[in-house]
């Protein structure tokens, strides 16, 4: 029989070379597993519905919706990454060191692609609201696709270089058996902080402040009835774009709120000094945003609700369903 001390080890047969397990009551442990597993399943399911909806219905093949599709793909990937966070609940990593590094690289890549996509969404809304007359020519499907591909490609290249030492020597920086640590050079931490937090979040805030100012000025003009006849059509377009901007603004604000705690911890302690369990805790807040995005769509996007009904009722299996008119356009809210 194992002694109480051995029972707290991740690998009791390895003795002192094993990491210690976080001991919780059985009820608490079961509850945590149920909650995280439910979040994982919901995240995968809801984002899969977004992916199917935008990919299937041709009426939704617009620049803005393709950006939402990119965000849904990253959120869908996050749903699977929750499994790795569940494995770290007791502080023991039971998979190989290679899988530990894989988890870190994929998580960072997906999170970075999400940040880049949100920046592209902010740019899209800025052009739509502040320069509506030239929106159709400036923001095209091809340009949106190029932006998405570059966003993902840059994320893959950057984090492959950032985790180079870990990829070449997986498990090299683990302090004990059952540990899951990755080493990030200090200069890489600083570059990562600027590229994935300070710079993009500054751009997002500046662009949405500008959108807000335009919205306020238009509201004042409408209240004072200062409307020029020649501008009535552009005012109508702008009003529609402003509704879309407000809806996407909720997505952006929630994204900022969920991402900030992780970088606050990183700034106060440094990425390299965060234990696997602490890292998993703050990371869960970031990953939880991937569940919130499709939930926001359900409440704010009528087109998404209509598409979900078509998908769940299997109407998409019918011939010609790609061209089905479900009374949905990108900016009808």
Automatic annotation (TrEMBL):
Question: What residues form the membrane-spanning segments?
Answer: 30-54, 66-89, 101-123, 144-163, 194-216, 247-268, 274-300
Molecular functions per Gene Ontology: trace-amine receptor activity
Q: Name one GO cellular component term.
A: plasma membrane
Keyword Transmembrane helix in the entry? The reply is yes
Pfam families xref list: 7tm_1 (PF00001)
Q: Where is the G-protein coupled receptors family 1 profile domain?
A: 46-297
Membrane topology type: Multi-pass membrane protein
Record keywords, A-Z? Cell membrane, G-protein coupled receptor, Membrane, Receptor, Transducer, Transmembrane, Transmembrane helix
Any idea where this protein resides?
Answer: Cell membrane
The record ties this protein, via SMART domains, to: 7TM_GPCR_Srsx
Keyword Flavoprotein belongs to the record: no
Family in the record: Belongs to the G-protein coupled receptor 1 family.
Know the name of this protein?
Trace amine-associated receptor 6-like
Organism listed in the record: Gouania willdenowi
């Amino acid at each position: 029989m194992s002694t109480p001390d051995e029972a707290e080890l991740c690998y009791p047969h390895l003795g002192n070379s094993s990491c210690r397990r976080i001991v919780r009551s059985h009820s608490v442990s079961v509850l945590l597993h149920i909650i995280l597993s439910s979040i994982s399943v919901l995240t995968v399911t809801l984002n899969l519905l977004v992916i199917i909806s935008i990919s299937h219905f041709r009426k939704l093949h617009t620049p803005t919706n393709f950006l939402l599709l990119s965000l849904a793909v990253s959120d869908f990937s996050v749903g699977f990454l929750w499994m790795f966070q569940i494995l770290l609940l007791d502080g023991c990593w039971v998979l190989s060191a290679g899988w530990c590094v894989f988890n870190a690289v994929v998580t960072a890549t997906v999170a970075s692609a999400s940040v880049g996509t949100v920046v592209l969404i902010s740019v899209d809304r800025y052009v739509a609201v502040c320069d509506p007359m030239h929106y159709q020519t400036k923001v095209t499907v091809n340009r949106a696709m190029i932006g998405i591909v570059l966003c993902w490609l840059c994320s893959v290249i950057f984090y492959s270089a950032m985790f180079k030492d870990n990829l070449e020597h997986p498990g090299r920086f683990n302090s004990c058996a059952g540990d899951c640590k990755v080493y990030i050079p200090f200069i890489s931490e600083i570059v990562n902080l600027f590229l994935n937090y300070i710079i993009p979040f500054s751009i997002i805030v500046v662009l949405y402040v500008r959108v807000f100012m335009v919205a306020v000025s238009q509201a004042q003009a409408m209240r004072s009835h200062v409307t020029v006849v020649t501008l009535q059509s552009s005012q109508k377009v702008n009003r529609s774009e402003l509704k879309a901007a407000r809806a996407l603004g909720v997505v952006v604000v929630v994204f900022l709120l969920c991402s900030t705690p992780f970088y606050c911890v990183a700034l106060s302690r440094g990425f390299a000094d965060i234990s696997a369990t602490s890292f998993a805790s703050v990371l869960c807040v970031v990953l939880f945003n991937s569940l919130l995005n499709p939930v926001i769509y359900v409440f704010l996007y009528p087109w998404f609700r209509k598409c979900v009904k078509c998908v769940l009722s299997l109407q998409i299996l019918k011939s010609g369903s790609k061209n089905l008119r479900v009374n949905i356009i990108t900016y009808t809210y």
